[in-house]
Amino acid sequence: MSSAVSATVVALVVSHDGSRWLPTVIDGIRSQRVPVDRVVAVDTGSKDDSAALLDAAFGEVVTTSGATGYPQAVRLGLEQASDADWVWLLHDDSTPDPGALEALLAAAADDPGADILGPKLREWPSLRRLLELGVTISGTGRRETGLERGEYDQGQHDDTLPVLAVNTAGMLVRRTVLEELGGFDEQMPVFGNDIDFGWRAAAAGHRTLIVPEAVVFHAEAAHRGVRRTPLTGRHIHYQERRAALYTLLANSSGRALPWRVVRLALGTFVRMIGFLLVRQVGQALDELAALVSLYGSPRVVRRARRDRAARQPDQAVDVRPLLSPWWVPYRHGLDFVSDLAAALTNQAADVAERRRMASGRPLPVASEDDPFAADQGVLARFFTNPVALGGVLFVLLALVGAREAFGTVVGGALAPAPESASQWWQLYVDARHPLGQGTDVPAPAYVLPLALLGSLVGPTATISLLLVLAVPLSFWGAWRFLRVVGRLLDPQGPPAWLLFLGAVTYALVSAASGAWGLGRLGVVVLVTLLPWLAHAALGFADPDADRRWRAAWRTGLLLTLGAAFAPLAYWFSLVLAVLVMGAGFWISRGMRHRSAWGPPAVALVCPPVLLAPWWLPALTSGSAAALALDTGRLPMATVTFSDLVTGHLGDAGAPAWLGLLLLAVAVLALVPVRTRVPVLVCWVVALAAALVAAGLGLLTFERDAVTTAAGLGFLVVVIQAAFVVGAVIAAQGAVRASSDHTWRRRAVAAVVAVAAVVPVVGLGWFVVYGPGELDDTRDTGIPAYMMQSAALGPSHGILVVRGDVQSGLTWSVLREDGLTVGEDEIDGLMQADQDLNDAVGEMVSSPASGAVDTMPGHGIEYVVLPEPADGNVAAVLDATTGLEQASAENRETRAWRVSEPVEEAAVEGGTSWTRTALLVLQGLAIVAVLVLCAPSQGQERR
Questions:
Q1: What's a Gene Ontology MF term here (predicted)?
Q2: What's the CATH number for 2-233?
Q3: pLDDT for 149-169, tens place per residue?
Q4: Domain-wise residue ranges, the chain
């Protein structure tokens, strides 16, 4: 021990804007029981009085610029400590315990082979929480300390042990070793140089010990973002991650390097996803930047590996025992999953407890005699709760009403689902589609969510689920929304039976309007989404700005999804937002603050950005009419004023008097003075929807294949929803106000009884007549062998001619498996090929026209006249050279085969670089919005 204590020890302190900690650090150095021989201080461009404090205390300060990294600062200090045997490295935010140096020197005397020694690091200012007892690194670049999170020092780690590395905050190192290894690597100017130095030292045969009896308190100012330096700025995680990747790549063996390169690249993307899921966007970008920085400059790593190879002995020491075990990253993954599960469980428990406290009902507690008492209490409450039983019964009956949607479902405006989700993906990716003679009309935006869901459950099950679950999910969403609205008006909220009636009434809108039975998938989806969208929009009124911004992204995402199925949802939301925000600017100055008007504006910007791959091509391809239509086959149903007020789509739907009864209840909702203002808001929304519908009702869209009115299904839904919400609000106020008046209670009971007729009769009608035009059959009228041939490719088309000479003939081309969901709108909006149109006209009018010779070039293999075939046209085609009669399954159907083989490249689809660019931007935007929708998981370091 005497030789170590008698050795010359120079303390080297590096500082940068550390004046808040330096007085304590100076006192810690002066109070050492074994004093240092000298103190050399290096200040890297501090803007505070750090240099002055050090000069006054030790009188030997080297000053340099703020761009000087820690390795350079240590090198400058060594130039002033050439006579030192040991160098004791300290940071300006690390203060040693009075016995720290004594314990380190004692350990060096007991183990003369130790060249690097480090103290136990404890957190400053808590003083008891452990930070490090030596460090190592995992195969993924994670800094491993072997400590539990938040572990306190209770003497449980007091053994002196060999480790890979120790922190530079308190590191005692032989000067000769420091010089032999070339000091610290300048590629790591702030973070991570301790692990790299320890790895190089171990490979060179030097031993590193952790000495728990020596204690240093460390504030970790740079790591925690308390202090910002020119070398890190706001990107602390970038510096830390880059140092970790560099350490692994520079020090790994040549045999392990290829696997390390691949693993770190894949691991970086996994970590990015993890950071994005918890809304740590900055750290996710830092991860990517660190990877690109190193992988984009391979010469940096090659130079580092050559330098390390030159400094190692002929037989390098195996450092693998000092590295983190291979299974540690997987343990961290399991810890993350368990932490997430625990957080979700605790959150659910907290929500349940708050609800219990708000309701004043005690939570059933299990006793030792009956451990299932709590569960029995829950079951007992369920079976004795009429509302709960009614909800279950309603869902069961709704599933009965949706019976035709189980399995394959087609009919009305709903085309068949494709055979695989890959067809939806192909439809969405392609810029040109092999429909008809090929078209640039873009795929509808809703094809993307259908493709995503279809990839999980299949296309047929996707359509089935959307229809089957529409009413139950609408019921759930309406219940949540009406409950929140009721609590905003009255902390007690609406009675459960009132919520039940309102939610059931709204949930049946898709069925009662006829949208469900007509196969108008977009309107059905919008009915399901609307209460969730409205619930998200309520967040704009939250007093917390961060919650308002999260509400903006959630609302924008839901609005985008709704606009994908019904573009009119966006246009109406835009009109409504302008009216509401304009009134807000006029009424309150607070609306002028960015955190007030910004969230609604962000929500309105989301759809045009996220739906750009649909909207932009629709405008450039001459199919802008798609932005005013509903989903499904054209034409759209004509909606009159009476249809609007009764909640119908054309002639479909439940009896009209049910809609009139709901309208009457909504009018009566204006009577109670207590709730008149919020009910008037509902009426304003309904009237705005009616005015927009009246304007759009004057428009018709003429295409080559069809003439159609605008798709007003969403506006019908909005009006019905406004009526339901207004009625529930008024009923809630009336119930509270009539508690002390018998005649009022009777009046309210009478109105509620009348209003209850709407959901009762509507549910009964849905159960009996709900399926409407939907069924599970798909009959094209085309012989099966022709369909099999058409499936060979888009150029094996079938020309289908319908009608007769007197009333007129129409034609269409059936390709592959026919029009499926998503393709029918494209077919209705695309322009007919004029060359083919002229050729078909000549072919059916004159057998000698020679038009049949052009059919292979148009990708036509068969010609079919479905029943009842016009005899005159059939006679012309029979006499046409180049057509061979083909068999048909129905006697009334006539068919021919084109003699010449089709040209395989006659009709082709494909993508383009502009389409690809739009899809890439859309994908990135969707990921960004999803991340911003997530709850905050703590603030990023600044």
A1: transferase activity
A2: 3.90.550.60
A3: 778 888 888 889 999 999 999
A4: 2-233, 329-371, 391-420+458-769
